[in-house]
Amino acid sequence: MKKKSKIYVAGHRGMVGSAIVRELQRQGYNNIITRTHKELDLTRQEQVEAFFEAEKPEYVFLAAAKVGGIIANQSALADFMYDNMILEMNVIHSAWKNGCKKLEFLGSSCIYPRMAPQPMPESCLLTSELEKTNEAYALAKISGLKYCEYLNRQYGTDYISMMPTNLYGPNDNYHPEHSHVLPALIRRFHEAKLTGLKEVTCWGDGSPLREFLYVDDLANLCVFLMENYSGNETVNAGTGKELTIKQLTELVAKVVGYSGAIKWDTSRPNGTPRKLLDVSKAKALGWEYKTELEDGIRLAYKDFLENPIRAER
After folding, report:
1. Are 140 and 98 in contact (CB under 8 A)?
2. Which of 42, 72, 178, 189 would be 87's cystine partner, CB 3.0–4.6 Å?
3. Rounded-to-integer distance, Cα 309 and Cα 313, Å
4. Rounded-to-integer distance, Cα 87 and Cα 41, Å
5. Catalytic residue, candidates 137, 159, 214, 289
6. CA–CA separation, 100 vs 111, rounded Å?
7. Which strands form 59-62's sheet, in the order they lie side by side?
8. β-strands 32-33, 7-10: how paired?
9. Given this model, what pLDDT does residue 3 score?
């Protein structure tokens, strides 16, 4: 990409999209196109086609998605599959029809099998069944990834994909029912601290292992891959480090300053037992993460405190 290349960031108001915009601006890219959902509904094919025909972006970062935690995924299976599949197909197809030089599709580590080898290499995709709690979302993301690959094979495009691990950071979603585990914990411990609750109950037994990547580090990798990688196989984005959910809750409580007891409701689901990405491919390309987890949680909590409206989303 050149500094004046026309770049479209889909989903620029979300946590990932806003981080990509920040990173592009930090690196001196100054011709960035964005549209709000009200201005452009990516699930409406006619709107997407008209936008691409009018703007003709040279590069596209596809970070728009309908996302949520276990509750949201389980209660809206059809919505998660339809909305994600429709919007990504609309964007990727219109980018191809209008001569987009390069597109980067962002998926999720949930595309990998529930019992995938650990750490999970890119090559384990579609080798066994998915985790049922987020299967609909995973199937939609796999479809987007594969459509990019098939366009490359059939039409010689240069469309790539990358699969992030669990993300957190500025502009996260802190909704009490629709957020992911780390932002949900930030909100719960913050509210418990304010109200003086003596204990907080968390889902499951705390045993699942998880990996977390600070969203600004992800954005740095997004731009790095756009400039340095071409290929049909996806690229994992993570730290290569993991901790138990129990360790995570204790770390978040420490950062927030909550000193009460932490209880576990074992009648609630744990989700996938372990989700560690093999990040050797990104490392071999010359990229590594920078932000350690405790430092990143402090930055995320600071953003939460400075933007209270985030807690209402």
Report:
1. no
2. 42
3. 7
4. 8
5. 137
6. 26
7. 32-33, 7-10, 59-62, 102-106, 159-164, 235-237
8. parallel
9. 96
Cα(273)–Cα(164) distance, rounded to whole angstroms? Answer: 18
Peptide bond preceding 183 in cis form (omega within 30 of 0): no
Read off the tokens for 45. 């094919």
Residue 301 designated active-site: no
Q: Tell me what percent of the residues of the chain surpass a pLDDT of 90.
A: 83
- For 14, other C-beta atoms within 10 Å of its C-beta total 19
Among candidate residues 16, 74, 25, 28, the one with its CA nearest the CA of residue 203: 74
Q: Write out pLDDT tens, residues 239-248.
A: 999 999 999 9
Averages of pLDDT over runs of 10 residues in the chain (313 residues) are 97 96 98 97 98 98 81 72 96 98 94 92 96 88 97 98 95 80 93 96 94 98 98 97 97 97 92 89 98 98 84 51
Terminal Cα-to-Cα distance of the chain (whole angstroms): 34
pLDDT tens, position by position, 135-168: 899 999 999 999 999 999 999 999 999 999 999 9
Neighbours of 135 (CB within 10 A): 18
